[in-house]
């Protein structure tokens, strides 16, 4: 199988590349001009320059490719410009789909998000729980819904959709979903609302995405989640794990949204990164518990327990100095 | 083989491109974060550009340990020797 990974230098992309190589595959790894290519170079990965805004670069990269793994869907840096985020996300996705059609790609695995999963009257949500229209729960939720809808409407080749929960594991170099763990390791008490967080080990998510691309028979859309956790309980457990004080009580949803919006606007004015981002607040406040048994059964996944995931992340993050090395811990 | 002062000039040029700090103002003792304003993502981007410029393979652990211009120069020297 000739495979191309879009977003190969990113968090999930690197985990996917590792899974593929463990299976004896040698994927072509798409990188942007300003991608951090150090992890790909150290893996001796085959690389190709791709810009999702340059259709020719996409078509060239997909020449001779059977399966495209699209793990580079637009992730807006903030939620203060919904129209702009939608415009970029949908335009880039259209470019990818058009290029795949032009290059006669057989299958595309599109990496979406559990933001597209609706609450279920049964308690746990599964693949059947979808929103009838844009969720209206924030820019990130709407963007992911519109993008997923566009991907699933593709008819020129087969599209399969993976919806991973909050990924935790090695290679989160930008400290995205691992921020909770990193904050706990640094004894930082960032105000948070409470809600359900569906967590998945990044290696399990990558394995699921790979199998979605390689298995002859697989569902058209799967949820990839290892466990559901209440955020405040999770933060309390993380504080205990790292020997810090217990976190402050959760703040209300409206207060969290106002704080995240203010932090994002401040970061836009002054640069840097806000303490709390709006899409994270939206994901927590509107998070639903998820039943990922379909992916476990059909893709042969055995989801790692959270403790194992945290151990793996911890060992890696200490090596990368993202959290304090053990010798510096009192 | 590239001479040491050429290497250092290239490192300074890459730093300048990324930070917009003029080459002449970049000092060997400057810290990437505090003095040149690079956050952790910017620092990784810098090291990635350096790896490509000099065609050297750096491990992420080694890259993550670089905190200042002197460390950058030392890393380039180690891999080019």
The CATH class label of chain B is Mainly Alpha
CA-based shape of chain A? globular
Radius of gyration of chain B: 11 Å
Computed structural class of chain A: alpha/beta
State the helical fraction of chain B: 55-70%
Ends apart, CA distance between termini of chain B: 9 Å
Instruction: Describe the largest sheet of chain A.
Output: 7 strands, parallel
CATH architecture of the domain at 3-168 and 198-226 and 289-303 in chain A: 3-Layer(aba) Sandwich
Mean pLDDT of chain A: 95
The low-confidence parts of chain B are: none
Integer average pLDDT of chain B: 87
CATH architecture of chain B: Orthogonal Bundle
Roughly how many Å is the radius of gyration of chain A?
A: 19 Å
Question: How does this model look, in words?
Answer:
The complex is a heterodimer of chains A (330) and B (81). Helix content of chain A is 42%, strand content 14%. Chain A has 330 residues and is an alpha/beta fold. Chain A has a domain at 3-168 and 198-226 and 289-303: NAD(P)-binding Rossmann-like Domain (Rossmann fold, 3-Layer(aba) Sandwich), CATH 3.40.50.720. Chain A has a seven-stranded parallel sheet with strand order 3-2-1-4-5-6-9, sandwiched between helices. In chain A, strands 7-8-10 form a three-stranded mixed sheet. The longest helix of chain A has 21 residues, at 82-102. Chain A is globular and about 55 Å long. The mean pLDDT of chain A is 95. Chain B has a single domain (4-80), classed as Non-ribosomal Peptide Synthetase Peptidyl Carrier Protein, Chain A (Orthogonal Bundle). Chain B has helices spanning 4-19, 40-54, 60-64, 69-80. The chains are: A alpha/beta (330), B mainly alpha (81). The A-B interface holds A 34-39, 41-42, 173-175, 272-273, 319-322 and B 39-41, 44-45, 47-48, 51-52, 57-61, 63-65.
